[in-house]
Amino acid sequence: MTKSLFLFVALLLSLASCSDTKKTHPIDDSRNTQYLFVLTAESGAIDGSTLMLNGVKNVIYFSDRPHRIAGQMKLDKFDEMWSKGKNGFQRVPPNAILEIIESGNSLSFSIELASPVTKGDQIIFKIHGADEPEFGDFGPASLFIDGFDTVNPQIVD
């Protein structure tokens, strides 16, 4: 009887710890954590002041010390988050580094991003900056986006 009661209590405790099935991104920040983002694309193109990234599956986010929070979000959630918060990207456009791998060489460009538009696994930004690249189509690339000061954007998958 004691063994059965112990197993029953253990089962209840394990079920209670798994009860929250709706995952909320930790980018529900009441601690003023700054997040950085990485988008990895299969290909892309730059046409004047427009950057297009294709084949972006997810957006990786992470924070610095002391919180050290990391995760992934869907591209459309990243687009939604753009305009949220008093210091959101829409109000304070972020700096970014576009890293393109072309013919085995790594090319880096420092740009400022604005006005994202998502279509499936594609995201298009308006860009400008000191290193505004004059480039056409390119292969694999990563976009490293500077900090985002959150004020409760409540991103939920």
Can you describe this structure?
A hairpin with a 2-residue loop joins strand 7 and strand 8 (122-128). The protein has one domain (22-149). The chain has helices at 2-17, 75-81, and strands spanning 34-41, 43-47, 50-54, 58-63, 70-74, 95-102, 105-119, 122-128, 137-138, 141-149. The longest helix has 16 residues, at 2-17. It has a 10-stranded antiparallel β-sheet with strand order 5-4-1-10-6-7-8-3-2-9. By secondary structure, it is mainly beta.
Give the secondary structure arrangement, pairings included.
Layout: H1 2-17, E1 34-41, E2 43-47, E3 50-54, E4 58-63, E5 70-74, H2 75-81, E6 95-102, E7 105-119, E8 122-128, E9 137-138, E10 141-149
Antiparallel strand pairs: 1-4, 1-10, 2-3, 2-9, 3-8, 4-5, 6-7, 6-10, 7-8
Compact description:
This protein is mainly β.
Main pleated sheet: 10 strands, antiparallel
So what's the oligomer here? single chain
Range of helix content:
10-25%
Strand content range: 35-45%
Task: Fill in the keyword field for this structure.
157 residues, mainly beta, ten-stranded antiparallel sheet, globular, disordered C terminus
